[in-house]
Amino acid sequence: MTNPLPQMPVAISPLVKSIADNLTEGLYILDHNRTILFWNAAAERISGYKARDVVGHQCRDNILMHVDELGHRLCETLCPVAMCLTDGDRRKARVYLHHIDGHRVPVDVKVFPVHDDEGKIVAAVEVFSEVPDKKEMERRMFELEQALFVDFLTKIPNRAYGEQRLVASLAELSRYAWPFGVLMVDIDHFKRINDNHGHLAGDEVLRMVSATLSGGIRPFDLVSRWGGEEFLVVLSNVDNEKINLLGERLRALVQNSYKEVGGLRLGATVSIGGTLAKPDDTQETLLARADAAMYQSKSGGRNRVTINRI
């Protein structure tokens, strides 16, 4: 016999529910045990999870599994909802939620408490929205698609667009001394995924990693599919420390992503090599240094970042 759903600590009228379902922001309500009691339509759209999938479950039950930009699992340590339910303080944070398709989605969250008539905290409300940079990226991707610069499988910029960005960045470095760097990202043991689970599963992993990389960069940076399971990331205005930090962010986010395929949970890790561009670089010399650093990550055990410092 199944357990009944928990009782709502506050009444939600049809009118209030209708208003909540017309919000552009995701909204959900959790009780003091962090059990999800209400899940609006925007939460379904942003996360991919339907209300029937999450209501009655705790938020940490392998559903959203929020992580920060370093891959730390907030449900286990620094959950804004748990802290709000404890001290009653409002919270704001940028986190990366787990989408039902496997990738990580950057969202801004706001959490506030719900009190009963006696002032006791009985629930918390979390409102989350896609970051403005993400919406701008989606607009830019539409424009790229019209220009045939989008990879058919992963829906991110393809190699042709990545090469154009690389040429433009080298010209800007030479003319204006605008610094930039590149990361070469390769999925670890990708052939093993294809061999063990089939090419359709491999395609799903490619899409998952592509979406996670795209969600982890800044709005003025670029991720393109370079070929096979390899990606090129072009990072503007970085130094040795910043390029390493951004590389570690991408590595951690991919490591903490997974895709459900045929009842199996498929994850992946990536090996990353990076370098800053020099004024006398060509595309070939710059990518050769990044490639060499990436292979150092591979030979060093994979799932790591190596920066060729200049």
What would you say this structure looks like, in words?
By secondary structure, the protein is α+β, with helices and mostly antiparallel strands. It folds into two domains: 14-130, PAS domain (Beta-Lactamase, 2-Layer Sandwich); 134-308, Reverse transcriptase/Diguanylate cyclase domain (Alpha-Beta Plaits, 2-Layer Sandwich). Helices cover 38% and strands 26% of the residues. It contains ten helices and twelve strands. It has helices spanning 14-21, 41-47, 51-54, 80-87, 132-146, 159-176, 190-197, 199-216, 240-255, 283-299, and strands at 26-31, 36-39, 91-98, 104-115, 121-130, 180-187, 222-227, 230-236, 258-261, 264-267, 270-276, 305-308. The strands form three sheets. A five-stranded antiparallel beta sheet has the order 2-1-5-4-3. A five-stranded mixed beta sheet has the order 7-8-6-11-12, with helices on both faces. A hairpin with a 2-residue loop joins strand 7 (222-227) and strand 8 (230-236). Helix 7 runs antiparallel to helix 8 (199-216). The longest helix has 18 residues, at 159-176. It is elongated. The chain starts with 13 loop residues before the first helix and ends with a strand. Residues 1-9 have low confidence and may be disordered.
The termini sit apart by: 65 Å
* Strand/helix succession: HEEHHHEEEHHEHHEEHEEEHE
Across the major sheet, the strand order is 2-1-5-4-3
Biggest sheet character: 5 strands, antiparallel
- CATH fold label of the largest domain: Alpha-Beta Plaits
Structural class: alpha+beta
Q: Using only CA atoms, what is the Rg?
A: 22 Å
Total number of distinct structural domains: 2
Second CATH tier, the architecture of the largest domain? 2-Layer Sandwich
Number of beta strands:
12
The top level CATH class name of the largest domain? Alpha Beta
Low-pLDDT segments, ≥5 res: 1-9
Mean pLDDT: 89
Into which percent range does the helicity of residues fall?
Answer: 25-40%
Strand content: 25-35%
The helix count comes to: 10
Query: Globular, elongated, flat, extended or rod-shaped: what is the shape?
Result: elongated
